[in-house]
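For the sake of transparency, this paper describes our internal protein records without simplification. Such a record has a labelled line for the sequence and another for the backbone structure tokens. Nothing more is needed to write down the fold, since each code stands for a local backbone conformation. For reference, a complete record is included directly beneath this paragraph.
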Amino acid sequence: MINAQSYIVYIGMVIVPFILAYFKSKAVSKKDQLFWLSLIILFLTLISGLRKNTVGRDSLGYAENFMLQKLSWYEVGFSFIQSLLYKIWPNYTFFFIAIAFLTNLFFVLRFNDFDKNGSSFIWSIFFFTMTSFSVGFNGMRQWLAVSICFYSTRFLFNDKGPKIFLFFVFLLLAISIHTSSFICLVFLLPIIFAKANNTKLKLLRMISIIALILFFYFGLSLFRTRNYEKLLNPNEFSFGFMSIVKYFVVVLAFISFKIEKTDNKYGLVSNKDGITLTYGSFLLIESVYIALASLSYWFDVLGRIAWFFETFETLFFAHLFSKRTKSVFIISAKILLIVIAFAKFTGNFSVSELRFPYEFFWQ
């Protein structure tokens, strides 16, 4: 049963970072911006790190492995972190705090890279805390790897040119923490397609069409099995009502993209120096994410792989929500985004994930 304390903690988990992000957007000097960024990272770290090992399905296992020093011989990066932290202080709460700090540091700094007008960062933090932040309460090791992979893309997609060596340094670090990070090699594909606008446009359309076909094929398969509750349950993350709503958002965004011509580039913008992600890129990545998340209904491993694209969904939501326009398509998409965020936030109360109620480590 969820107690009042849990409601306060989780609602505060969304409201406080949102307010801090607002003040950060108003800050002028880099020193002030760094101050507000630090507060956001600190707050998210404490919310995630001060939890009892009963909050999160796998938290108890991580706490036991840390205290007993059960180390993996092939994921040496995480084993090294465990061993180092244990030597500093053999306390699982300290371990939780350290992992939470590293994870949120990489996420927040990368979100800040995409902040061009102030408002996109605010909405990135909002959708992050509403939807995927609590994943770190459960799959701590892989979520840390996801954050490192997400951060590594700053060395591929920027205005100053790709730094492949640094990308691989962070990628290898992520792989040493969780081997599923190999999937992030796909982030190199945009480099290949960067200088072929026609190819990028064809790729964008091809991925969207494939995702749409897969979506409806497996949707019909679901109906044939008469497993209607999976389709209509908003708490079903892998496949369900939210997948349908998300795809409607993508369709609306794509229509508005073509009608408004607010961004005349499909996919990536490239110049002689570097490559930057644009509206079309987020549309493509979101289509891939929805397809993977939908397929994970049948193949669990794809759900874990989809995590590496989930943070780009946060950017896609933020990018779309920060657009100031009277377009009926964008307005409709914004309404659906709020529905998605609310459904997933309340869905985190799901008993199957064992994330609630929230208990502090001293309880």
The chain is about 70% helix and 0% strand. Residues 197-224 form the longest helix (28 residues). Residues 251 and 283 are 9 Å apart (CA to CA). The radius of gyration is 20 Å.
